[in-house]
Design a protein that fits this description.
- The structure is a single chain.
- By secondary structure, the chain is mainly alpha-helical.
- The protein has helices spanning 3-26, 38-51, 70-74; strands at residues 32-34, 60-62.
- It has a two-stranded parallel ribbon with strand order 1-2.
């Protein structure tokens, strides 16, 4: 991966973290939707990174799409 690509990915990560922090600050009861898919896993990772070392500021709401592997539901 080139340094330009790394810089772009870092920029995207910074923007996502900014959005998560702003959401937590501006809304009374935000929640993070979670389906168990790769996109949901990435969002949880970003949210943990955004609020570390503090407490995760909003609940996860599981969205059962009906298309999950049993391992995802167990997780």
């Amino acid at each position: 991966m080139s340094s330009q690509e790394k810089n772009y990915l870092n920029q995207l990560e910074d923007e996502a973290i900014y959005i998560l922090r702003e959401t937590a600050a501006q809304f009374e009861r935000p929640a993070l939707l979670f389906s168990g898919g790769k996109d949901s896993i990435v969002l949880i990772h970003l949210a943990l990174k955004a609020f570390r070392p503090g407490k995760f500021p909003f609940p996860l709401v599981h969205v059962d799409t009906g298309h999950n592997f049993p391992e995802a539901i167990k997780f």
